[in-house]
Amino acid sequence: MTVVQASVYVAGEPVETDLDPxxxxxxxxxxxxxxxxxxxxxEDELVGRIMSDLGLHPxxxxxxxxxxxxxxxxxxxxxxxxxxxxxxxxxxxxxVRCDEIDVIASRDLIVTVTRTDRIDLGDVRQRxxxxxxxxxxxxxxxxxxxxxxxxxxxxxxLDGVENDIDEIEDQLxxxxxxxxxxxxxxxxxxxDLAHATTPLPDVLSRLDDATAGDEKVSGVWESARGxxxxxxDRVQSMRHTLDNALTIxxxxxxxxxxxxxxxxxxxxxxxxDQVKKISSxxxxxxxxxxxxxxxxxxxxxxxxxxQPWGYPMALALMALLSAGLFGIFxxxxxx
Length: 335
What we know:
Belongs to the CorA metal ion transporter (MIT) (TC 1.A.35) family. The longest helix has about 80 residues, at about 215-295. The protein has helices at about 20-30, 45-55, 60-65, 120-130, 130-135, 140-170, 180-195, 200-210, 215-295, 310-330; strands at about 5-10, 15, 35-40, 70-75, 80-85, 85-90, 95-100, 100-105, 110-115. The chain folds into 2 domains: about 5-255, CorA soluble domain-like (Beta Polymerase, domain 2); about 260-330, Magnesium transport protein CorA, transmembrane region (Methane Monooxygenase Hydroxylase, Chain G, domain 1, Up-down Bundle). The chain is α+β, with helices and mostly antiparallel strands. Strand 8 and strand 9 (about 110-115) form a beta hairpin. The model has no long low-confidence stretch (mean pLDDT about 85). Helix 4 packs across helix 6 (about 140-170) and helix 8 (about 200-210) packs antiparallel against helix 9 (about 215-295). The strands form 2 sheets. The chain has a 7-stranded mixed β-sheet.
């Protein structure tokens, strides 16, 4: 559902709400405050028209109409353009959902554009209104609170991802065939999270430079940058852990394959030994069979058959051939 909310803040306090965006800006300038225009799930045509009516930089307006894959900061004239990507983690599905908040801020105007109603900026408004001393610093203070809320929201996401990584580490040394797929899927989610968090320290450093004229507000960027750097480092650590998990899993798989190949080799060696023994005894048994079959042909002209030594000679020949083959096979370690 499309929501367009325009409020006027003077001296850190909300003084008028539910105004037309252009009217809210006029009232804010007339009273020395700032206007906060919030566009939720609005059509591109409506967003573009409001941006044009508010007189915002055309490039910043065009940037707010397209989606971005990373958090970023750009400056267009007097307008600051910031993209933030708050994240949520679905532990059951092990997926990270990154949404997008586009922010255009100038001295007396801040416009927040969200493409989904899943992002609730009510908490940001409450924090701004609960600290009027901070809100007196205008749109930069609102931008800082936005960063604080987004960075704080990453903690639950990181805790959920780390819990699943711990479970993966416990599964690595088991035989669960679903481990590699789980690692790949979680690695993809962590990469998406890295796109949202890795640029944040640089974004906050550039914002610090852009607001260097306001010492109080400028100081808070440094503390926010430190927390953003901590989040970015944790995400990079998760990527390294998952990379190592894949390496370990591949090593374990190769180790198991090597063990199976070693067992198979042992079986094959034993089978070869058995084949050698069977073949050797078959050859030894074939020698007397050959001699007996030779003399069993019943040819008429076989002189040995008429001699008294013919039968002993045949037996001796059988024994000699068998003994010779046995010696040969024994020497070659076939028996």
